[in-house]
Amino acid sequence: MDATTYPDLVNISNNLGDTKSLITHPSTTTHRRLGVEGRQRAELGDNTLRISVGMEDYADIEGDLLQVLDDLQVAAGYVPR
Length: 81
Fold this sequence. Notes:
It is a single chain. The protein has two helices and three strands. With about 80 residues, the chain is an alpha+beta fold. The protein has a single domain, classed as Aspartate Aminotransferase, domain 1.
């Protein structure tokens, strides 16, 4: 399970540079050709997500991403102290 599964407002993309908010997973899209060693040299982990914030209302983007984080914590069984 990963964050790219959940966002409602933030679209999944392998190409950044739009007026809409986008999220991409560089290890499987833009930097895939570098291979594991190349991504390690670039300090790009397999858990890295790149977010390009668009022109939507800030509160909407924030709410969408916070909901993703909450859903991931629940799915992982995280219990706040």
